[in-house]
Amino acid sequence: MTIETWLLAGLVLVLAWAYSRWKHSYWSSRGVPTPPFLPFIGHLHKTALLKKRYTFDMEAYYNYGGSKFCGLYSFHKPCLLVGDPELLKHIFVKDFDCFTGKKPLKLTKRDRVITDTLVLKTGEEWKRLRSIMSPTFSSGRMKGMFPLVCQKADDLVSFCLREARTKSSLDMKHNFGRFTLDTIASCAFGIECNAFGEEKSAFCEKVDAFFKISTASAMRKVFVSLAPQIANAFNIQFSSPTTSFFEEVALKTIAARKKGSRRGDFLDLLLETQSPSDGDKDPGNQSSKSKQGLDDPTIVSQCVVFLIAGYGTTASALSYTAFLLAKYPEAQERLRRELHEVVEEHGDVTYQGIMEAKFLDACIMETLRLYPTSVYLERMCERNYRIPGTDLTIAPGTVVSCPVWTVHRDPKYWPEPEEFRPERFLPENKANIANFTHMPFGVGPRNCIAQRFALMEAKIALAKLLLASDLRLAPGCENVTVSFGFGSHTPKAVNLILKPLKDE
Q1: pLDDT in tens, 314-359
Q2: What confidence tier does 429 reach under pLDDT thresholds 50, 70, 90?
Q3: CA-CA distance, 400 to 210, in Å (whole number)?
Q4: What is the reported pLDDT for 279?
Q5: Alpha helix stretches (DSSP H) within 49-97
Q6: What is the DSSP letter of 121?
């Protein structure tokens, strides 16, 4: 290479470095504290992987002003980390019209099933879909699905008790995963997948493949996220190739349901939206167009997102709760006494009884404080927005994130935050909990639409299991290790000893 080439290359590097320095002066020029970052990539090396994200959020929260707010960079794009409950109330609720969407995820044409899910919709499309789906998760609808979930919980207990006869300890992470899979297959896809059978069904095998994370699949997801146009040109798919299997299953079930086969499950409730009232059948009625029901492909997408959002998250929540109850036997015994009282009053495990079980609810809520489903929450600013109480204005396109995991463990809001203390969530103590410091299902209009179903599912499983057995920690399993994957976390292992309880 000639000296001129070297000089030109050096000039390009200097100009690129100067440009990066200028772009990364965005927050400092506005007086906003920022954690140390790298040239060109900003904080992406800390925020791209969930395993590093929660520790980085904690560092930014305590050391760089994140307990109120601090600036971050994704490459050169400025982002804002907000941990102050009062500001969170404005961003997620009061000023929701400025933050209606999340950071966009541009996918390829092969990802149509994922693209049409409620989670990825924005603007008017999200509002319409949310308004149609919300009644599906009313308490009345949940009560109708209660028997289906109870049946799966009974299968779980029977399976665990059979295993307990021959095994010194049980892999409850695996067992809870089979339970949530059975429940979703029944309620969202309308099939019996026999997750507790000796041989895996095709549905179970496809689910395992769907959630399996390999280096290649992780790189594929990152590539599609960063370069969707190139990925589309090369026909690269973000979602697992097994997505087509679930699409086919859902479409077959939909066809059967339209012929008259009904079960009162999630799929039936979505299909009900395709039967508009007489007033809505007038094609010239403009006001009725927004009320039109969901077409088959959109219903399929919601069934798939039910699997994505509800399989691992609920199984993990159950695993964490069972572990904590085994670790704190006093809490377990107190909960069992409450469940016996509920059964005595109602004659069985009923929907009303489960919903009235205060300590059961408290145990799950405390578990979700320690191990929230989402490590962080995000919203994207849609127009110029001045942060309340400051002179700082953020521009459209700025992503605002909340460090949920860190807020849930801040001793300022939670005395002895690492301790499992369900009493925090009993009715007489709830007034002591600061608003927007407990967000396991998100907050505001974009909170988890299926949280009522997830809680019912978890409560039924725990109630049935604790009424039938005593949970104890297996030797060497006195602590739980959290494994962070692509966008989620789960306990690495939850091995428990189950002691069957004699009928009283």
Answers
A1: 999 999 999 999 999 999 999 999 999 999 999 999 999 999 999 9
A2: very high
A3: 30
A4: 40
A5: 50-63, 85-89
A6: -
SS3 sequence of 234-258: CCCCCCCCCHHHHHHHHHHHHHHHH
| Type and span of the H or E element at 483 | strand 482-484
CA distance 397 to 77: 9
Instruction: List phi, psi (to 5°) of 203.
Output: -65, -45
Q: How do beta strands 393-394 and 385-386 pair?
A: antiparallel
Distance CA(171)–CA(168), nearest Å, equals 10
Burial class of residue 151, CB neighbours in 10 A (0-12, 13-18, 19+): middle
At 284 the pLDDT is 47
* Sheet with 495-500: strands ordered across: 170-171, 495-500, 469-473
pLDDT reading at 281 higher than 50: no
Which region, left, alpha or beta, applies to residue 68 given φ > 0 means left and ψ of -120 to 50 means alpha?
Answer: alpha
Closest CA to 228 of 79, 111, 308, 119: 111
DSSP state of 93: I
pLDDT tens for 120-158 read: 888 899 999 999 999 989 999 899 999 999 999 999 999
Beta bridge partners of 469: 500
Q: How many helical (H) and strand (E) elements, i.e. helices and strands, does the chain have? A: 20, 11
Query: For residue 291, what pLDDT band results from cuts at 50, 70 and 90?
Result: low
Is residue 22 helix, strand or coil?
helix
Q: How far is CA 180 from the centre of its chain?
A: 14
- Pairing, β 77-82 against β 399-402: parallel
What pLDDT is attached to residue 493? 87
For residue 385, the surrounding DSSP H or E stretch is: strand 385-386
pLDDT at 491: 92
Average model confidence (pLDDT) for the chain? Answer: 90
**Do the beta carbons of residue 349 and residue 467 sit within 8 Å?**
yes
Q: Please answer whether residues 176 and 461 qualify as being in contact, where contact means their C-beta atoms are separated by less than 8 angstroms.
A: yes
pLDDT for position 288: 44
Residue 23 · residue 76 · CB < 8 Å? yes
Contact 479, 489 (CB under 8 A): no
Distances (CA, A) of 225 to 11, 67, 300: 31, 29, 23
